[in-house]
Please model this.
Amino acid sequence: MSRYDRHVFVCINERPKGHPKGCCLEKGSSEVRDAMKSLIHERGLKDRVRVNNAGCLDACAHGIALVIYPEGIWYGGVKKEDVQEIVDRTIVRGEVIERLVISDPTYAPSRRQFDPLEKP
Amino acid sequence: MSRYDRHVFVCINERPKGHPKGCCLEKGSSEVRDAMKSLIHERGLKDRVRVNNAGCLDACAHGIALVIYPEGIWYGGVKKEDVQEIVDRTIVRGEVIERLVISDPTYAPSRRQFDPLEKP
Model:
Protein backbone atom coordinates (compact mmCIF):
# COMPACT_ATOMS: atom_id res chain seq x y z
CA MET A 1 0.00 0.00 0.00
CA SER A 2 1.31 3.40 -0.96
CA ARG A 3 0.83 6.53 1.14
CA TYR A 4 -2.62 7.33 -0.28
CA ASP A 5 -5.35 5.05 -1.60
CA ARG A 6 -6.19 7.67 -4.20
CA HIS A 7 -4.09 10.66 -5.17
CA VAL A 8 -5.80 13.26 -7.33
CA PHE A 9 -3.85 15.84 -9.32
CA VAL A 10 -5.82 18.77 -10.65
CA CYS A 11 -4.17 20.88 -13.34
CA ILE A 12 -3.94 24.47 -12.18
CA ASN A 13 -1.63 25.62 -14.94
CA GLU A 14 -2.08 29.25 -15.95
CA ARG A 15 -1.25 30.71 -19.34
CA PRO A 16 -1.38 34.34 -20.37
CA LYS A 17 -4.86 35.54 -21.35
CA GLY A 18 -5.57 34.86 -25.02
CA HIS A 19 -3.03 32.02 -25.34
CA PRO A 20 -4.34 29.68 -28.07
CA LYS A 21 -4.08 26.61 -25.84
CA GLY A 22 -6.07 28.20 -23.01
CA CYS A 23 -5.44 26.81 -19.56
CA CYS A 24 -7.23 24.87 -16.84
CA LEU A 25 -6.93 27.67 -14.30
CA GLU A 26 -8.95 30.15 -16.35
CA LYS A 27 -11.63 27.48 -16.73
CA GLY A 28 -11.96 27.31 -12.93
CA SER A 29 -9.70 24.44 -11.91
CA SER A 30 -8.82 25.98 -8.56
CA GLU A 31 -12.52 25.87 -7.65
CA VAL A 32 -12.70 22.22 -8.68
CA ARG A 33 -9.69 21.52 -6.48
CA ASP A 34 -11.14 23.41 -3.51
CA ALA A 35 -14.50 21.71 -3.81
CA MET A 36 -12.88 18.29 -3.99
CA LYS A 37 -10.58 18.94 -1.02
CA SER A 38 -13.53 20.13 1.07
CA LEU A 39 -15.61 17.11 0.24
CA ILE A 40 -12.74 14.70 0.99
CA HIS A 41 -12.37 16.35 4.41
CA GLU A 42 -16.12 16.24 5.05
CA ARG A 43 -16.24 12.55 4.24
CA GLY A 44 -13.41 11.82 6.68
CA LEU A 45 -11.13 10.59 3.89
CA LYS A 46 -8.26 13.02 4.24
CA ASP A 47 -5.79 10.41 5.50
CA ARG A 48 -6.50 8.11 2.57
CA VAL A 49 -7.10 10.50 -0.30
CA ARG A 50 -5.09 13.57 -1.27
CA VAL A 51 -6.01 16.26 -3.76
CA ASN A 52 -3.05 18.20 -5.12
CA ASN A 53 -2.35 21.04 -7.46
CA ALA A 54 -0.43 19.96 -10.53
CA GLY A 55 1.34 21.89 -13.21
CA CYS A 56 0.34 21.44 -16.85
CA LEU A 57 -0.82 17.85 -17.40
CA ASP A 58 -0.51 18.29 -21.17
CA ALA A 59 -4.22 17.77 -21.65
CA CYS A 60 -4.95 21.43 -22.37
CA ALA A 61 -7.49 20.73 -25.11
CA HIS A 62 -9.47 18.69 -22.58
CA GLY A 63 -9.34 21.02 -19.58
CA ILE A 64 -10.30 21.21 -16.80
CA ALA A 65 -8.18 18.07 -16.56
CA LEU A 66 -7.32 15.87 -13.61
CA VAL A 67 -5.77 12.46 -13.10
CA ILE A 68 -6.40 9.99 -10.29
CA TYR A 69 -3.61 7.60 -9.29
CA PRO A 70 -2.67 4.83 -8.80
CA GLU A 71 -5.42 3.87 -11.28
CA GLY A 72 -4.43 6.46 -13.88
CA ILE A 73 -7.97 7.69 -14.54
CA TRP A 74 -7.89 10.84 -16.67
CA TYR A 75 -10.91 13.11 -16.62
CA GLY A 76 -11.45 16.14 -18.81
CA GLY A 77 -14.02 18.90 -19.13
CA VAL A 78 -14.50 18.64 -15.38
CA LYS A 79 -16.85 21.15 -13.79
CA LYS A 80 -17.37 22.02 -10.16
CA GLU A 81 -20.76 20.31 -10.45
CA ASP A 82 -19.02 17.02 -11.26
CA VAL A 83 -16.96 16.95 -8.07
CA GLN A 84 -19.46 15.21 -5.84
CA GLU A 85 -19.98 12.43 -8.38
CA ILE A 86 -16.21 12.01 -8.84
CA VAL A 87 -15.77 11.65 -5.09
CA ASP A 88 -18.72 9.29 -4.60
CA ARG A 89 -18.32 7.10 -7.64
CA THR A 90 -14.65 7.13 -8.61
CA ILE A 91 -12.80 7.91 -5.41
CA VAL A 92 -14.98 5.97 -3.00
CA ARG A 93 -16.51 3.22 -5.17
CA GLY A 94 -13.75 2.87 -7.77
CA GLU A 95 -16.02 3.35 -10.78
CA VAL A 96 -14.97 5.13 -13.96
CA ILE A 97 -17.41 7.88 -15.01
CA GLU A 98 -17.50 7.37 -18.76
CA ARG A 99 -18.68 10.82 -19.77
CA LEU A 100 -15.71 12.44 -18.02
CA VAL A 101 -13.01 10.19 -19.49
CA ILE A 102 -10.94 12.21 -21.95
CA SER A 103 -12.11 11.14 -25.39
CA ASP A 104 -8.60 10.80 -26.88
CA PRO A 105 -7.94 7.04 -26.61
CA THR A 106 -4.42 7.56 -25.25
CA TYR A 107 -6.09 8.64 -21.99
CA ALA A 108 -8.35 5.59 -21.74
CA PRO A 109 -8.23 3.83 -18.38
CA SER A 110 -7.02 0.26 -18.37
CA ARG A 111 -10.17 -0.93 -16.63
CA ARG A 112 -13.69 0.35 -15.98
CA GLN A 113 -13.82 -0.65 -12.34
CA PHE A 114 -11.22 -0.47 -9.60
CA ASP A 115 -11.04 -1.50 -5.96
CA PRO A 116 -13.48 0.50 -3.84
CA LEU A 117 -12.11 2.26 -0.76
CA GLU A 118 -14.24 0.04 1.45
CA LYS A 119 -14.93 -3.54 0.47
CA PRO A 120 -18.69 -4.15 0.60
CA MET B 1 -2.31 1.45 -20.21
CA SER B 2 -2.76 4.95 -18.91
CA ARG B 3 -1.48 8.08 -20.67
CA TYR B 4 2.03 7.81 -19.21
CA ASP B 5 4.07 4.80 -18.20
CA ARG B 6 5.50 6.82 -15.33
CA HIS B 7 4.22 10.10 -14.00
CA VAL B 8 6.50 11.93 -11.59
CA PHE B 9 5.23 14.67 -9.30
CA VAL B 10 7.86 16.86 -7.67
CA CYS B 11 6.75 18.99 -4.74
CA ILE B 12 7.45 22.64 -5.47
CA ASN B 13 5.48 24.01 -2.56
CA GLU B 14 6.80 27.26 -1.16
CA ARG B 15 6.32 28.50 2.40
CA PRO B 16 7.35 31.84 3.85
CA LYS B 17 11.02 31.99 4.89
CA GLY B 18 11.48 30.72 8.46
CA HIS B 19 8.29 28.63 8.48
CA PRO B 20 8.91 25.73 10.91
CA LYS B 21 7.91 23.11 8.35
CA GLY B 22 10.27 24.44 5.70
CA CYS B 23 9.38 23.66 2.10
CA CYS B 24 10.66 21.67 -0.84
CA LEU B 25 11.12 24.72 -3.04
CA GLU B 26 13.67 26.36 -0.76
CA LYS B 27 15.59 23.06 -0.73
CA GLY B 28 15.91 23.26 -4.51
CA SER B 29 13.01 21.18 -5.81
CA SER B 30 12.61 23.26 -8.97
CA GLU B 31 16.18 22.32 -9.94
CA VAL B 32 15.41 18.66 -9.32
CA ARG B 33 12.35 18.98 -11.54
CA ASP B 34 14.26 20.77 -14.30
CA ALA B 35 17.11 18.25 -14.24
CA MET B 36 14.67 15.36 -14.44
CA LYS B 37 12.65 16.90 -17.26
CA SER B 38 15.83 17.53 -19.26
CA LEU B 39 17.06 14.01 -18.82
CA ILE B 40 13.69 12.50 -19.79
CA HIS B 41 13.80 14.56 -22.99
CA GLU B 42 17.41 13.60 -23.70
CA ARG B 43 16.59 9.93 -23.31
CA GLY B 44 13.71 10.20 -25.78
CA LEU B 45 11.15 9.29 -23.12
CA LYS B 46 8.99 12.38 -23.14
CA ASP B 47 5.96 10.63 -24.66
CA ARG B 48 6.02 7.92 -22.01
CA VAL B 49 7.17 9.73 -18.90
CA ARG B 50 5.98 13.09 -17.56
CA VAL B 51 7.51 15.16 -14.80
CA ASN B 52 5.11 17.62 -13.18
CA ASN B 53 5.11 20.26 -10.53
CA ALA B 54 2.95 19.37 -7.58
CA GLY B 55 1.66 21.36 -4.66
CA CYS B 56 2.48 20.27 -1.12
CA LEU B 57 2.67 16.47 -1.00
CA ASP B 58 2.44 16.54 2.81
CA ALA B 59 5.90 15.05 3.18
CA CYS B 60 7.52 18.31 4.30
CA ALA B 61 9.76 16.68 6.89
CA HIS B 62 11.20 14.50 4.13
CA GLY B 63 11.72 17.11 1.41
CA ILE B 64 12.72 17.36 -1.34
CA ALA B 65 9.87 14.91 -1.90
CA LEU B 66 8.53 13.34 -5.07
CA VAL B 67 6.18 10.51 -5.95
CA ILE B 68 6.20 8.30 -9.01
CA TYR B 69 2.92 6.81 -10.25
CA PRO B 70 1.32 4.44 -11.02
CA GLU B 71 3.71 2.57 -8.72
CA GLY B 72 3.37 5.01 -5.82
CA ILE B 73 7.08 5.22 -5.08
CA TRP B 74 7.77 8.03 -2.61
CA TYR B 75 11.27 9.45 -2.44
CA GLY B 76 12.52 11.98 0.06
CA GLY B 77 15.70 13.96 0.67
CA VAL B 78 16.16 13.99 -3.10
CA LYS B 79 19.08 16.01 -4.43
CA LYS B 80 19.85 17.13 -7.95
CA GLU B 81 22.71 14.59 -7.91
CA ASP B 82 20.17 11.77 -7.44
CA VAL B 83 18.22 12.59 -10.59
CA GLN B 84 20.23 10.53 -13.04
CA GLU B 85 20.00 7.45 -10.83
CA ILE B 86 16.24 7.94 -10.37
CA VAL B 87 15.77 8.12 -14.14
CA ASP B 88 18.05 5.17 -14.93
CA ARG B 89 17.07 2.83 -12.14
CA THR B 90 13.51 3.67 -11.12
CA ILE B 91 11.95 5.25 -14.19
CA VAL B 92 13.62 3.10 -16.84
CA ARG B 93 14.37 -0.16 -15.02
CA GLY B 94 11.58 -0.11 -12.44
CA GLU B 95 13.86 -0.55 -9.41
CA VAL B 96 13.23 1.06 -6.05
CA ILE B 97 16.29 2.98 -4.72
CA GLU B 98 16.16 2.03 -1.07
CA ARG B 99 18.19 4.95 0.31
CA LEU B 100 15.72 7.44 -1.20
CA VAL B 101 12.52 5.79 0.05
CA ILE B 102 10.99 7.98 2.75
CA SER B 103 11.81 6.26 6.03
CA ASP B 104 8.31 6.65 7.54
CA PRO B 105 6.72 3.24 6.85
CA THR B 106 3.47 4.78 5.61
CA TYR B 107 5.40 5.76 2.47
CA ALA B 108 6.84 2.30 1.84
CA PRO B 109 6.32 1.00 -1.70
CA SER B 110 4.24 -2.13 -2.08
CA ARG B 111 7.03 -3.87 -4.00
CA ARG B 112 10.76 -3.44 -4.55
CA GLN B 113 10.70 -4.02 -8.29
CA PHE B 114 8.27 -2.87 -10.96
CA ASP B 115 7.87 -3.41 -14.68
CA PRO B 116 10.77 -1.88 -16.58
CA LEU B 117 9.93 0.51 -19.43
CA GLU B 118 11.50 -1.91 -21.90
CA LYS B 119 11.25 -5.64 -21.33
CA PRO B 120 14.75 -7.17 -21.55
Q: What stands out?
A: The mean pLDDT of chain B is 92. The CA atoms of residues 6 and 49 of chain B lie 5 Å apart. The first helix of chain B runs from residue 29 to 42. The interface with chain A takes residues 1-4, 7, 9, 50, 52-59, 67, 69-74, 106-107, 109-110 of chain B (CB under 8 Å).
